[in-house]
Amino acid sequence: MKKIKNIGVLTSGGDSPGMNAAIRAVVRASIYYDIQVTGFIRGYEGLISNDFIAMERKSVANIIQRGGTILKTARSEAFRTKEGRQIAYNNLKEKNIDALIVIGGDGTFTGANIFAQEFDFPIIGLPGTIDNDLAGTDFTIGYDSAINTVIDAVDKIRDTAESHDRLFIVEVMGRDSGLIALRSGIGVGAEAIMIPEANMNADDILHKLEHSRKDKASKIIIVAEGDDTGGAFKVGEILQEKYPHYDTKVSVLGHIQRGGKPTCMDRVLASQLGVAAVEGLINGESCVMAGQVNREITFTPFDHAIKHIDAEKVSSKWLKLIDILSF
Q1: Measured distance CA(46)–CA(69) in Å, rounded
Q2: What pLDDT shows up at residue 188?
Q3: Where in the sequence numbering do the catalytic residues fall?
Q4: For the structural domain made of 145-257, what CATH number should be given?
């Protein structure tokens, strides 16, 4: 097994709170084990354009509390091509980089998996995505921060909803996964939660409203953007047509869910996984995602982590809990 002397690190895809904490952990763990660290700017695009910085302790000072990513992030069309990946590999070899740590979600890991197998190059991924839609980890870096951002925003919306006897439909992120809507909806006491995994439609919402308390001053419905009905505005149209007496409003929270300071949970998780990734590379791990399951560090092959949401994350007991609490 080749000794690791220089690790490259990058962030790719959508940013998530806690990415900086993960970068910090990778850099400090590498230095602890006497390994050099090279940071690539704007993800895989930086690998191809040779945009990099040598990283040291000072590079990651005072960043653990910052949202976003100091290494920037981007989606790279060039990396999708064999020619682009060849350029990236040549740049890595030119700098004597022995391994990569990539921080991102399923798109990031898909690219990493292809690259690692094409060039027999050691890569470990860190789950940096607000969607929590990866198997092999109970929580992804950024998920806790995102749902707390949603809760804070919806609590404020509830204040104005109560003042005006309004029905609010709030759309949160989650094109392919309803996990942000699931936990934040429970956390804000939503009257209904619409997520792709539950196959709930507008008729189900109508039924809930018809059988809910008639004297309640406000009603909140949380909708994941990937819901089959067509999103919050479509749900709002249907409800307004059926219940014209309701003062119905739609609020799309959008990208505020990605921003802001990471929570303590995300900072600690990112720190644990960053160190685990460095140690994993030293011990010969590759083509895997570092995660945490039942508070234990795990390594899950990329092809299993991608688009394989653990059944436990959206199990029938969660859906029953929603039904009980929103009655």
Answers
A1: 14
A2: 94
A3: 131
A4: 3.40.50.460
